[in-house]
TrEMBL record:
It holds the Pfam family DFP. It comes from the Eukaryota. GO terms for molecular function: catalytic activity. This is DNA/pantothenate metabolism flavoprotein C-terminal domain-containing protein.
């Protein structure tokens, strides 16, 4: 038995060393201390609520130290921003929204810049900005919801993989103090590959000849996140595949490998109207009519997830 325990301890130490070595290669954001302080104050101010960390949007991988070009994991941030909005509307959660700079945000996602400006005008007599009457009900509704939620929403941005991973780790350290009241809803599209800083070109790569790039695998931080950083939280990851035949298998494998609570699995072409919520023991599909634009699937996902999180808190408190 002692030998088994020693092997487990050795394996744990090896995992920690590997992840720390990976982080040591990355560029640490200069505002990390400020982010941690803001997050801690936000959690304390909303201590009567559950706290959700929602990640959203895609990360970039620079291919030059003085970055002109980069490889992007494209994501508009629809799922993360919509889910944040519905979590806030439950009035049970305060949300830390960790999102890609300039990706979609809760509430304001309902308006494009062109749409918003096309419904605004300036009254030449009063010099006041006016809103087209037909647009006022929608604008009023969204602004009212946003104002109702603004003290329960903390927005933090990232662009690069390094910024995302460092910020995610810092935020989980804060959320770890909340135990089972914390929920992580990891909807960001995180790069699977990166170029180590020592292999990056210093200046802009010239276009006078073909370019070959060698990428390394990004270590999966979900395992240390679940095991070490925030072990008592309700952690949800997302799995996107283009082949529906392997989707559930990949989701279940992720649960076994990383030890978290739930995978929300979706196939690329049907993701806007069908998802499957997968646990170690069962799966449940949520589907809406693809022609029905009166309801978003994120509303149903959030309702389901909130119920599961409440049950998780109850189960943990009963131990």
């Amino acid at each position: 038995m002692d030998e088994i325990n020693l092997q487990r301890q050795s394996s744990t130490n090896d995992e920690l060393v590997l992840i720390e070595e990976f982080f040591a290669q990355l560029t640490k954001p200069k505002n990390l201390d400020s982010i941690r302080d803001k997050a801690r104050e936000f959690c304390q101010r909303n201590s009567h609520l559950k706290i959700a960390l929602v990640t959203s949007g895609g990360t970039t991988i620079p291919i030059e130290l003085n970055t002109v070009r980069f490889v992007d994991n494209f994501s508009a941030g629809t799922r993360g921003s919509a889910s944040t909005e519905y979590l806030l509307k439950t009035e049970q959660y305060a949300v830390i929204f960790l999102f890609r700079h300039k990706s979609l945000e809760p509430f304001w996602r309902h308006f494009s810049s062109d749409e918003l400006f096309s419904h605004l005008d300036v009254n030449p007599e009063t010099n006041q900005v006016t809103v087209c009457p037909s647009f006022q009900p929608k604008l009023k509704e969204v602004i009212s919801e946003q104002k109702k939620s603004e003290n329960r929403l903390l927005k933090i941005t990232f662009t690069t993989l390094s910024e995302y991973l460092f910020t995610l780790r810092e935020l989980t350290m804060v959320l770890n103090e909340l135990g089972s009241k914390a929920m992580l809803y990891l909807a960001a599209a995180v790069s699977d590959f990166y170029i180590p800083p020592e292999n990056l070109a210093i200046h802009k790569i010239q276009s006078s000849e073909p370019l070959r790039l060698h990428f390394e695998l990004v270590p999966k931080v979900l395992r240390p996140l679940v095991k070490f950083w925030v072990p008592d939280a309700f952690v949800i990851s997302f799995k996107l595949e283009t082949d529906e035949n392997i989707l559930l298998l990949k989701a279940r494998n992720a649960l076994k490998r990383y030890g978290h609570k739930l995978v929300i699995a979706n196939e690329l072409n049907t993701r806007k109207h069908k998802v499957t919520l997968v646990t170690e023991i069962d799966s449940e599909s949520i589907q809406i009519n693809s022609q029905n634009d009166e309801i978003e699937i994120e509303q149903l996902i959030v309702a389901n997830v909130v119920e599961r999180h409440n049950q998780f808190i109850h189960d943990q408190s009963s131990r």
